[in-house]
Amino acid sequence: MTKTKTIVLVIVAIVFIAAAVVVKLVFFPFVKDTWFTMNTRGLRQVPAGLVIVRPTHFPGSTRKGVFYDYTQRNSRRMMGRDVTFKDLMAVAYSQPAALVALPSDPPKNNFDFLVTAPGNQQQLLQNAIRKKLGYTAQMEMRDADVLALKVEDPDSPGLKISPDSEKPNADVKNGRLYFTHQRLAMITGGLEQMLQTPVVDKTDSTNFYDFSLPWDAQMQQALQNHTLDQATGEKILADWGLGLEPDTASLEMLVVKKAN
Questions:
Q1: What is the pLDDT of residues 230-248, one digit of tens each?
Q2: CA-CA-CA-CA torsion for 78, 84, 86, 87, nearest 10 degrees?
Q3: b/e 64-97 (16+ beta carbons within 10 angstroms → b)
Q4: DSSP of 84-111, one letter per residue?
Q5: Do residues 203 and 210 lie in contact, with contact meaning Cβ atoms separated by under 8 Å?
Q6: For residue range 186-228, what is the model confidence (pLDDT) as tens digits?
Q7: Is 244:91 a contact under the CB 8 Å cutoff?
Q8: pTM, whole model, 2 decimals?
Q9: Distance from the CA of 208 to the CA of which of 28, 42, 72, 147 falls in 20 to 30 A?
Q10: Virtual CA dihedral for 205, 211, 216, 217, nearest 10 degrees?
């Protein structure tokens, strides 16, 4: 082999190595675990221009969930820490997790994600999920198993009709979280988040109500992490004179599929 050919081969090899390094940096950026601090100050310190989806580095963490910083119009950011695949898809497509229909063999592990790039952040996250995990989703009408919210005790003192003069409010006082002038639709949305199951309002009520529930750090964490046990949830509803019954309904669901 001539000296010239040897030099050419070395140059080619260097080019390929450099290209490989560039590809690695582009598709597998160095990610610091400290970027996943769930507070506004920490999220603002993450470098701009990132779209990251990875298997979680925080399995079993007590600090998990989704966090947003939308306070700065031109620098909106969002992150997820130790979230389920269902929650990841729900965030990416702006749908409640209860309305996400997973395939028969979804990923079992949890994920971390970061979006600090400008633009349509949901679309950026969708693209990253498609490239990294191989899944996409679309809205479809489906017959689904649901829980129906019904009145079991119309005279319950825990659910009081709110007068028109009151304004919507939520306030913590003396170990309870008080809701003022709220429709029952607010309850169904909260139940969906806790139970990860579609909940439909079959109370036939159009009134506004005042109601409350026990509130402490443990309850707050259980609600945020979707870990409230069924017995506690049923007791809260019973205090309001309400209950849940299994039912079926035709709903528009976010159907997750393998990408082509």
A1: 788 888 999 999 999 999 9
A2: -30
A3: bbbbebeeeeeebbbbbbbbbbbbbbbbbbebeb
A4: -HHHHHHHHTT--GGGEE--SS---S-E
A5: no
A6: 888 888 887 888 999 999 999 999 999 999 988 887 777 667 7
A7: no
A8: 0.73
A9: 147
A10: 30
